[in-house]
Amino acid sequence: MTSACLFHLSRSGRNQLLHIARVAYSFRAGNNLVASSCRPLAARRCFSDKETKTTKLAETKEQEQTGLQRSILEEVLIKEKQKPTTFTGKVAEKASNTFLYAAVAAAVGMLGVFVYLLAGEFFAEDSPQKIYSSALALVREDGRCQDLFGSTIAGFGEETSRGRRRHVAHHKYEKDGRQRIRVLFHLKGERDEGIAQAEMEQRDGEWQWRFLYVETKRRPKTTHVLIDNR
């Protein structure tokens, strides 16, 4: 029936119907193209919105955790120690403070004693360590000692059975009303080894050399006297 109606229409009518059909087809194709092009854009917008929300949520959680840590730290640092209000609490606090002050005073006192002993050991005129250091310096500077032991001379105290070196052997005594101190230590050089003996005596309040000599270890043993005020 439709074909019959189109056949009976005039040519101009048929042209108008064809034009309307083409316009409708073009409009439908355009809508499909717009819809297909909008889908990826909408998807990208949706993914971007989700990512933004996730980032904001993470930042919010981090800020909350930082605030919590800061509040705990501030509470620990700022919070003042509560003072006891009862008599027993006050007595306990005073006893604790007294014990603390006594411990600090004892530590300071022990430190002072240690410094005093250390100074006496290394800096006093009658210190065996100081006499040993002075005697070793004289031995190293002596030309005859360099010929006997070598240019480089080392000094050390007695050795234990395990090879450990102890302090320099020394002996303090009094004779003829005068204080004396004698030290003995070992020498070692490139050429030979030996021992050294030195003694100082207190005269008129001052410590002076009484003697200093060295003796080689290898045979024939050689004795060299550096100082002799006996």
From TrEMBL:
Protein name: Mitochondrial import inner membrane translocase subunit Tim21
Gene Ontology cellular component terms for the protein in this record: TIM23 mitochondrial import inner membrane translocase complex
Keyword Protein transport recorded: yes
InterPro entries reported in the protein's UniProt record: Tim21, Tim21_IMS_sf
Quaternary context: Component of the TIM23 complex.
Keywords: Membrane, Mitochondrion, Mitochondrion inner membrane, Protein transport, Transit peptide, Translocation, Transmembrane, Transmembrane helix, Transport
Membrane topology field: Single-pass membrane protein
TM segment ranges: 99-119
